[in-house]
Design goal:
Number of domains: 2
Number of helices: 3
Distance between the termini: 79 Å
Strand content: 5-15%
Radius of gyration: 24 Å
Largest sheet: 2 strands, antiparallel
Helix content: 40-55%
Amino acid sequence: MLSDNPASAKRLCVECGAENPKAATNCGNCGKQLLLYAAQRADEPAFYIESAEKIDTVSRVLLYILSLLIPLGGMIAGVILYVRSSDPRSDYREVGKLCLIFAIISYVVGFVIAIVVGTSIALWGLY
């Protein structure tokens, strides 16, 4: 059992359960990154919050452009990215949510343009 004394605290790996020194940044057993210690009462096990997964800027921009130009592709990518991670702080969830929003905006704008153009053509007799 881990104590409340920070000097004697050990870090448990969430991947394999191995104990690591408090100063460790990676698990000595499996190599998984240990980032944030969540302090708890002495009678509860300590746990560590994993880092949120990151998506690079170029990939973000390409996904957003895909969502605007090809809304169905953006919606598919958005759903896949959103459900990929259960961590609400993950970049995958954030990017997936924005891809879905951009795809919906693109659909709505396209629908409005189609209505306006269709109505204009019908009213002016250009068909």
